[in-house]
């Protein structure tokens, strides 16, 4: 993934985070076994951690731990602000738990991708005829 695409994905993740600061959210109907709000929290935090991990820590130059700490702090700040400043919203410890699950999923996705990338790099180093893991696929007509 190019740097431009990484920035775009991280920007989309930030845009999704704006929903946490809206004064009210649409009614999603009766609560089932899993609320749509919980799924949103898990998904947005997983995307955010994975995207910023790819952007800021693609080759271990920036530890993923800082991304995790920032996301965890953000999870708590969201709920504090919702409880204190947004009259139609409330602080929900369950949302923080959902955020932490999303953070864990994002870290797992980032870690799996790093392992796959390292393994592919080792394979291409062992076989010089094999294209590098990060090489773009091109056709002769593209040159």
The computed structural class is mainly alpha
Question: Helical amount among residues, as a percent range?
Answer: 55-70%
Order of helices and strands: HHHH
What average pLDDT do the residues reach? 82
Range of strand content: under 5%
Q: Which residues form runs of ≥5 with pLDDT under 50? A: none
Shape summary = elongated
Distance between the termini: 20 Å
Q: Biggest sheet: strands, sense, closure?
A: none
Number of strands: 0
In angstroms, what is the radius of gyration? 19 Å
Number of helices: 4
How would you explain this protein's 3D organization?
The chain has helices at residues 3-17, 36-56, 64-85, 93-126. With 143 residues, the protein is mainly alpha-helical.
Summarize the structure.
The chain has 143 residues and is mostly helical.
What topology does this entry show?
Blueprint: H1 3-17, H2 36-56, H3 64-85, H4 93-126
Helix pairs in contact: 1-2, 2-3, 2-4, 3-4
Keywords:
0% strand, mainly alpha, 143 residues, 4 helices, 64% helix
């Amino acid at each position: 993934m190019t740097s431009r695409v990484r920035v775009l994905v991280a920007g989309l993740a930030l845009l999704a985070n704006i929903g946490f600061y809206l004064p009210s959210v649409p009614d999603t109907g009766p609560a089932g076994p899993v609320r749509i709000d919980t799924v949103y929290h898990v998904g947005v935090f997983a995307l955010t951690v994975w995207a910023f991990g790819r952007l800021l820590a693609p080759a271990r130059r920036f530890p993923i731990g800082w991304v995790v700490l920032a996301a965890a702090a953000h999870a708590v700040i969201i709920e504090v602000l919702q409880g204190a400043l947004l009259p139609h919203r409330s602080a929900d410890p369950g949302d923080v738990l959902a955020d932490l699950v999303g953070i864990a999923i994002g870290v797992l996705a980032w870690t799996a991708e790093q392992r796959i990338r390292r393994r592919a790099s080792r394979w291409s180093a062992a076989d010089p005829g094999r294209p590098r893991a990060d090489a773009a696929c091109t056709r002769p007509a593209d040159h």
